[in-house]
Amino acid sequence: MKRVVLGDETYAYDQSHFLLTAVNLPTVMQVLQASDEHPYMCIMQKIDLELARSLMTEMDTHRGEGSAEDAGLVLGPVTMPLAAATMNLVDLIETPQDAPFLAQSIQREILFRLLTSPVGGRLRQAVQVGTRTNGISKAIRWIRDHFVEPLRVQDLAEIARMGESTFHHHFRALTTMSPLQYQKQLRLHEARRLMINDRMDASLAAHRVGYESATQFNREYRRLFGAPPKRDIRSITFSDREFFDEGFPVIGGPQSGSATLQ
């Protein structure tokens, strides 16, 4: 069982469901059930957008089009065919010499299962060029590449090719937060990563991610993570079973892959 927190929204799911991510989002993930006897294992697959687009043009079915039109994260059911195809892909680890010949066909089957699932409409919208999701994805990529810099919503709306009010509405629908809140979470996640991985002190980490006020950084850090920086970092050990997105794209922008399956 795993729990994923995005802003004020929480998604809890087990092996009977998958999590489809339509855009890059700063999330906190926590494993709820795991032990030495029954360790937690997860598969994350990056969606090949070009392969998905090619498959979509060949398909004459439109099942799932009405699902979760604006949500950045959606849960879908793991069917037996989807599970079998995924395990076939994992099995290629044991025979890497077969991967160049079989991997793409297996990925194609996985995409087919996703596109014809109840959340297939969400995936379609994520991969189609020119959709609202694609425009928001471009704006998100800009924020993630320039999160230390001052942010102007007008500039982001132009990147997404939307009016400001329309942009605000669809950005919040996808991410559950405003552009400024999204930038803030990126900064805080990156500061947390710097303190853990690079053993950077809180004041330097805050400055590195764009904060001018240490007091403001400490206040917003505690609001997001539930404890001030020093106490939070001290409490994180390998036994915590807590994993978090590092504040940077796990994948590239919308042209190289803006959706993932977990």
UniProtKB/TrEMBL annotation:
SMART domains: HTH_ARAC. This is Transcriptional regulator, AraC family. Keywords: Transcription, Transcription regulation. SUPFAM superfamilies: Homeodomain-like (SSF46689). The keyword Transcription regulation applies. GO terms for molecular function: DNA-binding transcription factor activity; sequence-specific DNA binding. Coiled coil: none annotated. Pfam families: AraC_N (PF06719), HTH_18 (PF12833). The keyword tRNA-binding does not apply. Residues 137-235 form the HTH araC/xylS-type domain.
